[in-house]
Amino acid sequence: MKPFRDNPELAKSLCSRIRLLASRVGHVKFMNFCGTHEWTTVHFGIRSLLPPNVELVAGPGCPVCVTPSYFVEQAIRLALEGVTVYTYGDSYRLPALRAVDGCRSLEEARALGGKVRLVYSFLESAKEAREESLFFGIGFETLAPIYSSLLVSGKVPRNLKLLSLVKLTPPAARFAIKYHMDRGLLPLSGVIAPGHVSTVIGASSWEFLPKEFGLPTVVAGFEPIDVLAAVLLLLEMLVEKKPRVVTEYRRAVRWEGNLPAKESMGEVFESSDSSWRGIGVIPKSGLFLKEEFSDFDAYRHFNLEKVPRSERDLEPGCRCGEIIVGAARPTDCPLFGKKCTPGSPVGPCMVSVEGPCNIWARFGGGDVPGNGR
Amino acid sequence: MAELIRRTVLQEFSLRRAGKVGLDELEDGATVDVDGKTLVFTTDSYTVRPPIFPGGDIGSLSISGTINDLAVMGAQPLAIACSVVLPEGMGVEEFRQILRSANEVSREVGVPVVTGDLKVTEKGALDGPIITTAGVGLAHRLVRNSGLQPGDKILVSGSVGEHGACILACRHGMGTIFSDAAPVLPVVRAAMASGEVTAMKDPTRGGLAAALNELAEKSGVGIELEEGAIPVSEPVRGLCDLLGLDVLGLACEGRVVMGVRGEDSENVLREIRRAKGGEGAAIIGEAVREHPGMVVMRTCVGGRRVIPMPAGDPVPRIC
Q: Is this complex scored with an ipTM above 0.90?
């Protein structure tokens, strides 16, 4: 990984080319779409390297952050009623807005005797589940084939039900772009598309960005050099006025994506409207089990709503809804670093290690004093 | 943790001082004035799980930890007290192993264990041994956390994060990383004999990030770090990448970070590198007048970011 990380010379040359091109455009605003891109951006101080007119904002790239409180509440209720709930570590601590029997998270439910099991994978739960169980199936397109291939293989026991909370990233990108346009914010000028997701769905999935919105798009890797190169490529396309999709992450991403994975997803899942925490309902943005797999469908088995329409999904004062679409910075939130910290998160963006607030809190995102030394 | 201590301990105790440095300062130890001399006094409890890990165990850790707390205040350790609480049913052989490695450290630095206590708790009350050590030392020149001044260079005595990474690797079953647990006394002696050391800390809980934030805050200066200069071993870097951890927040148990007068820094670095445990020492940054109380790092690609005080301890009981 060294050429893409510990490479100050290349970084320097990329930065000087970025500065040159940036002088030929006005104020530009690029959105990075992936929690891991935001991690790289903060961890390596990328923003401090960019000229003042090149803004980099974080997008809805954290599946834990956008899972509605309703599902956390239902999972807590089921765990307390004796259903074994399997979950990843991140969603384990996800705070619910409304307490269920005094519990605000699966972690608290377990402390009170609820059946909650932490696992690293769906496979682990499939091997382990003996009683009536639910898998809290968050994720983006990267996790969907893992769920679908296991279901297709027939290795999932009937007593284990999948609560598919899988979200699709292209509809969320469309939503975020419109959000900035509709609210009179400075519109986005380009998108750094998610690298891992694109290994599955392919760079071709982002073609609508230049076609419909005229937005240059770069599918980028996750090292600091990748992100700097992506910014440079976006600027090049802006200056040339030729927006298109460019794959910078060529060591992993193909134009058409991973066809067997896509096929397995198509066999098991179908897309439908889905609710995003702090954002609302985004059309065709969720994956749900097809009729053929309804025996494994937690929505059907436990009689859960697929698209909960909650009036309010965030604590008063919490600005996760704006932060997750890049319309506000974590440090703009009055709770950030005060009432809301990684040790005791209030908003969903502070929970997951891929959440923008969590990343900013742990790695010092925000303005750097004495920059430009 | 410091916040919790302020809210509870500092509020409940009325008499908190017997010399220049008392409980309120929350340093690695306190001073006691005796006939014009400065005794340094410190104590620490050790609960690490697993109690035996690659490169050491709770025994060696507890002795070197207390030696280190005395050393970073500039004191020559004189004697150690060691109290042990064992869970009922723990094997005598395992206990012996822990005592033997504690003894090894005590012999290595020539500091005797002169008193102590041993208790066994009923089954189920503990999941492993707890060791509490205390130590006294004599300081001819006290080194404080608040002594850093603009222009001082920041030195670290070796590669960082190895103890934290060792324990995490044990817990996650991710291969063997050796802990750096060791007394830093030889390094501290070499440093103090070869230049003016203005501030010192052993970067234990919260790692380099916590230690430097504390030095910056207590000294009222800013710290500028150079990421490329911070020594990190390949296995530790690899584990951090895998688990998404910040190496700067991982504990060290055999390292010291210090501020040294700018003009003395090269000399001190050379001498530290000759001392046992200081072979991998490096100058990693500088104290500055700007942004007092804040640590800012220039990253490996030239970007700058603030290094925040690690919030809470993500992995409890690493020491």
A: no
